[in-house]
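#struct-help
A.M.: can someone run this one for me? Single chain, 807 residues.
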Amino acid sequence: MEERSTGDSRSSDALVRCTLRKLPKVGELNGLPLSAFLSPGKWPERGVTRIVRSPFRCAKCKAFLCSSSAINFEEASWKCALCSTVNRDAELKAQSAEYMPELTEDVVEYTEDSTEASNACAHAVQLAAAEGSRTVILCLDELILAKTLRGLQGTLEKLLQSLPPSTNIGVMLLGRSVGVVSLEDGEASTTHRVETFPGSMEPHATSIWKRLKGGLYIRPLHECYKKLMLIISSLRPSYISRRQQRRCVGLASAIAMVLCRGPKAFSRPQELLKDMDSVAATRLTGAVQVMNVLSGPANFGVGSLEGLNPLDAKIGVVDWQEQTKAASFLTNLGKTGRHMGVQMDFFCGGGVVFAASHLQKLVSETGGRVYICQDFGDQCLHTMKRSFEETKLSGSYSFVDTFHSKELSLVGIEGPVAPPKGSEQASMKGSGRMVVLCSGDESRGVMFTYTVDSPISSDHVYLQFSVSFLDESSRRVTRVINTTLETATDTKAVVASADGEAVALAIGRRAVLAVTKGGTTQQAIMDVMESTRQIAESYGSQAWVFGARQLHGLPQSLSRSPFLSSLFFLCRGPLLGKVWQHEDDISVVRYAFLHGDFSCAVRMMKPRLFIAFTTADGGVKVDNVFPEDTLLHPQVALLLDIHTHVFIWHGAQVDPEKDAVVHALTKVAECLTSARGESGWTWLDQAMHGSDGGVKFDRHLVRELEEEGRQWPVIGRLPAPYLYVFKEGSSMARWLESLLDPSHKDGAGTMAWVKGAVGALRNVFAQSGPRSFPRTDQLSFKQWAHEAGVDGGGVERASHWTDDTSL
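D.P.: on it. C-alpha cells below:
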C-alpha cells in the first residue's frame, strides 16, 4: 500500500486545540491532562474543500479516510490509520490521489444528495436558513415595574427595526397566566385579542392547539410591524408586590412550542409534554427562537419553583422534591424543543433572583442561554441582536462524533452536547460515541478528554472529529477534522510539546465542573493546586526549600506560558473566587465557561489588563500588561476585560473628558466586544497606522487585537458585555482592585519590575514615590504559587513590555 504523509495541520488548529502535541510511548502522563477542545462553529481561515460524494469509512471503527491512511488504488483497499483495519471498496478504483482532497488536507467536507440528506439526517442543523423561514416568538413579562418598562419598550422597538422584514413574529404575554396575542386585527385597531391560558393548567398539546386553532398568531414582520409597535406601546407597568408576583414560565414555553410546530410534532399529543419517550423526532422547516423577557423567577405552574420568593438570596429554601420535579419537567421540555428545532433564550433583568441554574435545565437542551441584564437598555438590545444572528448562523443542533487511535480511550465529553434519544439514534450511522450538539455557533466549544491505555508502538496517534449539519440548500454536510499527535520516548520532548493555556483550561474546566455537580469551591481550588504541584514535581526542576515549604520549578514549556497565572486567576476570579455574590451571576458565568469555545473560556479564566498613559511628547501609548495592583497609578488609565464585563479605571489625575487615554481605552473596549467592521474597528485601524491623534500600540497588542477580530467576524461577543468607566477611589474601583493580583505584597522585587518595565512609563512611576495599597487577605500570585508548591519567581507574566512599544 502507498503510505500517505500526515498532512498539514494548520487548518485544523483553528478548530481543534490539544493540550499535548506529543505523547509518551511508554509511561503515564503524571498529571498532564490529554484533552482536545473542538470549536465546531468556527470556519478555518483558509477555507474548506467540499467533496460531492459519500466518504470512505472504516468498516470497524467508522473513521474516515484521511491523509494518514495507507491506500492501494489497484486493489481498491485502504488501511485505517486509527484501528489498522484493511478496508476494501470497489469505488476506489475509479478514484485517484490527485482528485481526493482528503488525502492531502486535514479539514474537508462531504455533501450528499439533498433527498437523501432530508431522510438520513433529519435533525442536522441548518447553518444558514433562509430569512423567510426564521421565526421569533417574543414572550414578554407582564409584571415588569415602571422604572424598567420604558427601557424595555425602547429595546423591543429597536430590535424589531433591526430584524429582516421577512422574519415571522409572534407575541406572548407571561404572568400568572399566559396570553397569546392575535395579530389578525386591522393595523388601525387600538385593541388586540389575547387567547388566555390559566397558569395552573396542564400542558396537553391537543388542548392547547384546540384553543389556538384558527387564530393568526404568527405573521411576517413587514405585514404586522405597526400592530407590533401598538402592542409594545400598550404594555403597562405592574404594581403587584414582588413577593406576590407569579410567573408560569414552564407553561409558556410549552405553548410556544405548540404554537410554532403544532400538535403533529408529538406522536401522542394526549399525553403531557414531559412524556419524552413518546416524542416523535419530526424536523420541521425553519428555525424558531423564543425570546423570553423576565423580570422575576419562574415560580408558578408546571416546571416552576413555587416556593421561591423573588427577594430571597438563594433557591436552597425550595423543597428538594419540588426542585427535582420541576427540573425534570424543564429538562424533558427542552428535549422536546431540541427535537422540534426550537431554541429557548431568557433575558432576565430587574435585580432579583431568577434561579438561572433552574432555567438552564431548559435552555441547555435547546442550545439557548440565560442572560442576566442589569436593565433592559442598550446592553440587552445588543445581546438580543447578537442572539438572533447566532441562531441564524447555528440553527438548532447538529451531530458531533469523535474517533481516535486504538491506544486511547475517550473518558469524557463536556460542552453544549446531549446524548441522542429515540429516533435520533436510528438516523445516525456513527461510532456509538456520537452526541447531539445543541448549538453550533462560533462561541461554543466541546472538550474531549482521553487516557492512554497501552504502550504506543507507532510514531503517531490520530484524533478525528466529524460535524454533521445542513447547509443553506438543505443538503447534508459532514465536516471531518483530522489532528495528528506525535509520540516520543523522551519525557522532556512530551513536556516541551505541552500547550500551557490548553493544559490550564483542561484543569480549570475539570474543577468548575466538579463544583456544578455539587462540590465545594474550596475543594475545587485545592484540586487545582494539587494538579499544579503534581505537574511541577513530575516534570519540573529540582526541588528547593523556601521557608517551611519545598518548591519545584515548572517545566520550561509551562513557565513561559500563562499556565500558572491562568490557574491563579481562575481560583481568584468569578469562576471559583468570591467576586460574584449572587448565585444567578455565578451560575451564568460557569455555564458560559463550560460551554464556550477555547478562546472564550481562556478569556473568562484569566482577565486581560490594558494600560494607557501619556508620553513625554504628548502622545498616548496603549499596551497589554499583567493584571496587578501596582499599576494603579494616578496618571494612567486601565482597562480590565473579564469577558462578561469590561472596566475602565482612570487615576485621580486623569481627566476623562480632556485626556485621550480614556478615549483610547474606550475604543479598544469597543473592538474587544464588537464584530469586525463596526465603528470601533474603524478607529483602531486608523490608530494602528498612526493616523489618529498620536495613539501608539505595542506590536504584540496589534497582533492580539487583529486575532480578536478574526474570532468575532459576524456577531461580536455574546453576551454583549457591560462597560463601566469609573475613577480612582470610587466603590467600583475597590471592586476592580479585588480582581487584580495584589503584587505589592511581594515586596520591592515586583515594584522594581513594574518601574523598569518600559522607558516611557518608568519616569511616570518614579515621580510618584511610595504609594499605599488597600489591605487584603488574598494571596498574591507569588504567594499562591508557593502555597501550591511551585516556584513562581521565574514564571512568565505574559506581559508585552519592551523598551520600544511603538509600531
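A.M.: thanks! The mean pLDDT is 79.
D.P.: also worth noting: The chain has 24 helices and 32 strands.
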